[in-house]
Amino acid sequence: MARWQPGARERLVLAAVDLFAEHGYDATTVAQIAERAGVTKSTFFRHFPDKRELLVAGQDTLSRLLAEGIAEAPKDVTPLEAVAAGLTKASSFMGPVNRELGPRLKAAIAASTELQERDALKTVGLASAMTAALQTRGVPTPVAHLAAELGVLAFKQGYESWTSTRDESDLAPHALAALNDLKTATAALH
Questions:
Q1: Per-residue pLDDT tens for 143-168?
Q2: Are 172 and 112 in contact (CB under 8 A)?
Q3: Which residue, among 43, 21, 45, 41, has the nearest Cα to 32 in the 3D structure?
Q4: Confidence of residue 134 (pLDDT cuts 50, 70, 90)
C-alpha cells in the first residue's frame, strides 16, 4: 500500500461512493474504503471522523464559496443576480473529480436512507449559507430564503446537467442556465 500519495481525501471519497453503490452504505466498512483508496485506516481517520462524513466532504468549502460570491456581487444587483455570482464562484472550484463523482454519488444516495438524510442536511446547510450572505447584503429574510432555495435548486440541477454531459464546459453555465429556467418558472406562478 503506497503511503503519502497526494489526493488521499479525494480517493477516499471516490472509493466510498463506489463501495456504497456496489455493496450498500451499511455493508461498507472503513477498512474497505481505505483499502480501495490505497491508504491506511489511520489515514482515513485523519481526513474523516467516520464514513457518514464522506458525503458532506467539501460542504464547508462549497458553502463558503457560495457566500463569498454573493458578498462580492456588485451592490446594485438583484438577489438572484447575487445568487448567480455565488453559483459562478462556487462552480469555478469544481473540477474533473467533482464531475466524475456526480453519477456515482447519485446512485449511492439513492440506495441508502441514511445518505439521503445526509444529502438533505447538506442542502439545508448550503441554503442557510446563501440566506445569511443575502441577509448581510440587506435582502429581506423572506426574499433571501426564497433566493437561496432557488440557488440550491439551480446548483443541484446544474450539477446534474453538467455531470450527464461530456462536453468540455464548466459547471457555471449549467448552474446559471438552471437558475434562469427557475427564474422563468417563477414568473408562471403569478
A1: 999 999 999 999 999 999 999 888 78
A2: no
A3: 41
A4: very high
Give the closest residue to 37 by CA, choosing from 14, 57, 59.
Answer: 14
Q: In 73-140, where does DSSP find H-type helix?
A: 79-91, 96-110, 113-136
* Entry pTM: 0.83
Axis crossing angle, helix 113-136 with helix 96-110, rounded to the nearest 10:
130
Q: Residue 43's pLDDT is what? A: 92
Residue showing cell 474533473: 96
- Phi then psi dihedrals of residue 24, to 5 deg: 95, 150
Q: Which of 49, 20, 38 is nearest to 108 (CA)?
A: 20
Q: Which cell numbers in the block locate residue 52?
A: 457518514
User: Mapping DSSP to helix (H, G, I), strand (E, B) and coil, where does residue 101 land?
Assistant: helix
Q: Which three cell numbers stand for residue 73?
A: 456581487
Q: Give the confidence band of 31 by pLDDT, cuts at 50, 70, 90.
A: very high
Quick one: the chain helix, strand, coil %, rounded to 5? 75, 0, 25
Q: Is 124 exposed, middle or buried (0-12, 13-18, 19+ CB in 10 A)?
A: exposed
